[in-house]
Batch of 3 targets.
Target 1
Amino acid sequence: MERSLINQSLSGTTATTIPLKHRYVIMPVAAILIILIGTAYIVMGFHTPLIGDDLGFRHTFAEQNDCLYALPRSMYRHWIWNNARMADMLNPIGLYYMPVWLRATTNGLMTSLMFLTVILSCGRKAKENALAAVTIISLIAFTFRWDALWMEYCTSYNYVWSTAFALSALLIIFNSSRIRIPVLKWAAIPFCFVAAAMHEACGFPLAVGMTLYFIVSRKAFTGMTLSSRLMSIAFISGGIFTLTSPASYSRIGFMLQPEHPVEMLLLSAGYVLILLAATVVTFAGRRQQTPALVRSPWLIFATAAILSTCFMLLSQYGGRTGWFAQTFALIALFRTPVTLLSVPKKAQTAATAVLSILIVAHYSAVVCFQIKTGNESAKAIGIYRNSPDGIIFMDYADEPQLPWYILRKTHGVPDEDDTYYRYRMAKHYGNGKEPVILPESAHGTDWHSFAGTRCFGNRIISDAPLPGRYTDRIFEMFPRTMIRRNGIEYIEQQFVIHDKKLFLYSPVDRDRGEK
């Protein structure tokens, strides 16, 4: 009994998904898709200029990089003033030291690893059935909140990398008997600490879930090798570490435009709600299987999904913080022994083929549009840096006008309402001058004689403030002046050209997480 618990720890023996058929199909299909997605992010990495928090972290460290111990000192300062996330404390390695090609490559590899570790964590049948594996990839690709913010490396470090690290650590802990080189086992101990310490909404919920699992199934812990037990202790310690920063608690309730809890649960924790329903069905209708389920690693992920949802609700914002709750809930769902309809062989093959084609087509489109928007962003930055007054004449792809099928995964020139991104551009690229992007059609305008109000595409330029002005803000330091005209919200931006003060009004894109 003792040994069997260890052997089944992450093998998914308690999960019932699609009936197991043709095991050999999963490796090429899932592997090819995972590699293609990782390659897509490598390519996009070459067309993603540093902006937003990436730019902030890079320049902050550049100013502090004056000695050999600059990195640990930077980590300590971040711990004191921001949070206890290893993903943030270690990101100067990627954002400052790594060249573009290495930064893009590592990010693509970690994106692939994230998809892979989720499949492996979902259990045996997810690993061995093509349709199950491709379904998992599809659910992550199409239903998770891959907002445009994911085109920032620091976001990827915090969520994609944190997921890959944490799940990799769990897989190592519960499968350490397969590691034949003793040095690697001992090296995995500090890795487990770092993996759990990457993000508080990831590491701490998993640490609590693991602790609860070891309490309920004590033989799972006592039957481990010494190195696995030390890895487990290191992992739990890393999760606890994420709560040690005094600065983290000052953010609770700070969001000036909090999302409604119901909206957060439905849009950013939907799989958690489904998991709760599936758990009730399992416990009520399959009572004979309940003890085995509770004493399996299902308990780790189910507990983590619920706790991570609590972190999301405390943050008052779904999107990113709901990422871990969705991931853990999805894994737990595939481990829940709810009987599903048997899928015939031909139907499995057809469904796998259709989903695979959709995944490839989707990421091909995302790559094409990120190349377009990323190049536009690089062009805007280049013009802006050489502009004496911060004024840029160029047309660029507004994110709301991009095709729906890329699911807003791309990121390019910051919209006028993306005040935080514009702030970073001004601080680090323009010596404080505010960037003003005017349509190319306005380039030949006689500004000396400009009077009244004129439309340039979907933008408006006026020589006086338009009526109906009101203020709006996301962060206290970034107030914005808005108007509502013909049922459309516009953001107001003042600028001076040829010694004439004018007002630019651009449609507001209330895109979650990008301000």
Note: The chain has 21 helices and eight strands.
Target 2
Amino acid sequence: MLVTARLRLFLLLGVFALVTAVALIRIGYLGLVGAAPNQTSLDEALLPPRGEITDRNGTPLARTFPAYALWFNPKAMGDDGDPLVREPVEVAARLKEIFPDLDVRRTVRILSSDRGGYILRRVLPEDANRVFELGEVALEIPREYDRHYPQGTLGAHILGYVMEGKDRELEGRLGMEKYLDPQLSDPVSRGEPFALSIDLRVQGALEDELGRGMLATDAKGAAGIVLDVDTGEIMAMASLPAFDPNLSDVQHSPHIFNRVTNATYELGSTFKPLAIAAAIDADLIGSLRKEWDASPVEIAGRRIRDLHPKGDTLNVPEALVYSSNTVTARVADELGPERMRKLMIDLGMNKPAEIELDARGKPQWPLEQPNGQWSRITNMTVSYGHGIAVTPLHLANAYAAMVNGGFYRDATLRKVEPGKAEKGRRVFKASTSSRMRQLLRMISMYGTGRSADAPGYRVGGKTGSAEKAGVGGYREKSLIASFAAAFPMDRPRYVVVTVLDEPRGTTASQMQRTAAFNAAPIVGELVPRIGPMLGVRPDATRDVDISDLRFLVEGRR
């Protein structure tokens, strides 16, 4: 018996030793290569499941926070009977008393279904308590996370919105929410807010002035952009009417369409400086004193004429100041379709503009001949902004290249750190860019851009008023009015583009539907508001030196 007892003891000790050895081996394995405790568990516990988006100065634009929702669960009672104590119509009526904006018909439909679903999102705690007091077990108040946009509609087309995806997680469905989705939902990176390039103060001013312009002219829509010419950063971008990303049915909003990056327009005379810059760059305009024929151009059965003729001949500065179609067409004709087409390709006018957003409109590129070139008439009409339709973003990029020394850069909604800007590619000579700064400034001093000439800010730019294409041809009473500008022209830092879609005019301005009377004044009001925010202070003692060109216009005004 003693021997048997000792054997059992040794056997028991052996089992304990074996279990201990296995445990030690397992612990050692987990410590080296196994599934050690998750290092981000603290982040998981303390951070919301989606990162924050801010403007370039750290102002919050999108945040995630715990919230409540109202959910109908038809299986709340299992198989023991009807999940509701009262009839669906009566329950919906009582919920209406708690939530005045509730869609009763939709709620009754949900309560009568055996599939269940959300009745409301974003329920306040005090309202949740009132729902509990109804005594309906099937009305559940799940705690979940919600995305909130504290600035409301401001910058909505930039931010986009989120929707609940798989595993009930928030997923970006539009705008930067979609583009940044991997980073915003990553447990490692979501703890750091993502800074966009936009300045919320500038964004607010742009939307405010565009809204005023729409109201003053009874326009159906508006678009605007403020772009840093040296980095490609978008400081503000607005498409009106806007939408509210906080609404639960935001995906059904009719205003989600982005007029800045997705809508293509024939932008008219804003293209004239680009055509003149191409001719100067090609050394076809040796002297700006040269007189060009300003009489109507008869070509291919069409007649190109000036809306307000200023004489039989005009020099190039006068052609831009007075917005001459005929002189611009003749300059383009001398330049030739091959070089004009190449310039438009170099400026990215033949493809959607590069930007982080999915909403990117494809330009309406002119028809080409079998040899891949444009016809003579196409070349002429493109020079003054007809026959080619691009987005306002395309135009802003082109003007930035024209005034910043000649370098083209793709626009971006990411904040660019100092010294990290894209180098860009040369499109114009530096001397051409310098000359165009003079000419654009003269348009604002003497021509159609005078209403944009904010004192002290040395604004330079070009207006454009183009009839909208429709079935059977152009619609004479439907215009796209635009103004493309830069400031300050002695050292350009920002490009501003404003567009009004079908400004119909009010009783006081029925005859003033062209850009000189509507799109340009918006810039004139906007620049003094945003200049100090962007570090550009008014200075009446500085300006572009136009002493060698002034007499070409002043002597004949």
Note: Residues 2-32 form the longest helix (31 residues).
Target 3
Amino acid sequence: MTAGTFLKHFSPERTTLLALVLGATMICGLPLLLLFKTGLFHDGTVDPGPLLEALQSRSVLRALWHSIESSFFSALAATVLGTGLALLIGLSDVRAKGLLVFLILLPMMIPPHVTAIAWVQALGPASPVLRWLDLAPEPGSTHPLYSREGLVLLLTLQHSPLVFLLVRAALRSFPRELSDAARISGAGTFRMLRRITLPLLAPSLLAGFALAFVAALGNFGINALIGIPARYTTLPVLVWRRLASFGPDVLPNVAVISVLLALVALAAILIQSFLQRRMRASLIGLPQSPLAISLGRSRPVVEVLLWLFVACVLLLPAASLLATSLVRTYGLPLSVETLTLENFREVLWRQSVTLRAFANSTVIAGCAAVIIALVSLLLGYLLAHRQKGHRLWAGLALSQSEIAFAVPGLVMSIAFILTFIRPLPVIGISLYGTLWIILIAYVSVFLAVGLKPVAAAFLQMDGALEDAARVSGAGFFRRIRKIFAPLAAPSAASGAILVFLTAYNEITVSALLWSTGNETIGTTIFNYEDGGYTTLAAAMSVVVVAATVAVMVGMNALAGRVPAGTVPWKD
């Protein structure tokens, strides 16, 4: 092979593609392969024995049923609620739509365990707000949320914004001619919705249901904080309890349970993909602003109901969380005598673990967001490449990232423990028990979140840009730096913001990966609540919610000064 041929085969473009595919395989594909190998293989052959044995266990079978049951009913309720809100805000003439969209999406950015803590404190017998209003349940009575129905309710409220976001985006992509033709033909509002809008929304509704189902299936915070007191154990909680109780010695056992959870999630995704292909309808025409259906004299009533819903979902738990953080001991009524800022002083100044958790989460969430943004720019370019081979290999990396995102976070945690519990070859360094393993896990799990908008942006770019750059003699990295990166930067920034907000507050991925000195915000809040330090958990939760809202409000304020698409929840 001549030097020219060698350089041709190992050009910067191909070298980058190879590095990206190998990197995605190392952090997405390999951990899952090791998980399935541990759970399904023995001596190099497929051995379904451990899986069948797990299915014969009453505790595993019961947890599996609880996971499927709670995920199905919460996803169904979230689909109905999210779709109703999207239709009402997207197609009617209600006022203050921008603020309503912001507030409806806010619960999606609040960690699930914080949501659970807030609602437990909002509706329990010791609720400072309900006691102040003389509406609290009798002391000693069972908490109304500690039940299957309470768990489903909180999962519904947590995941309905996902469906709302999907359906609202689908509505904005509809050609307006469809609605105009229906109205001209004399169809009323409900007939138009039933005969045209909802059938065309079917693929989006199915995608929303599947997304809510998989999110609920892997949700750890709500399942743990509500399910454990209710004696309604789901698979993620069962895995966490066994590993927390017995340590790494039970890894083969929890690997089998994790494989079971992964198979349920992947089956849901495959069924959704199959049904979506059968339901897909081709639309002709450019997307335009959807109809603003006049609500007439009922508009004030509808707006009042909308704002009451937002107030119940946001203000009641937020007020209860704040009230709990301001009393000396959980259960005391909020009054001038019991009011204190001691809990905030404790978590912000005195407790080294909380300060360390804030620093750790900020660093690893920020690093994960930056890494994913940079990788997405390169991978997105290669996904839209004219050469089929490049697209196929880049598609392999994309597929692995999507599977890692679809599989519940706790399953990925087990996969990463199996992969990195031993020292790395050659260098002999173990990542298990360090902050690095959490960072790599974040990049693996959230890569699809940052990559999706960037890939979509590259697919919309004209191929003439590539031709012009090549004719001008621009090399691969120069083309990326001077032309494509600036054009895709808003989408990369949008994905990075979502990654940061999600990783900053998450607990599902880090629940099994953290160690002393490497705590995250999510694990610290959960440990406070699980250990009985409710007022400290409330104070830290208030700080986290305030920081999340501040970031979102700040990004909203910058929306007019940055390129369109940079702020993910703005049009």
Note: The chain is about 75% helix and 0% strand.
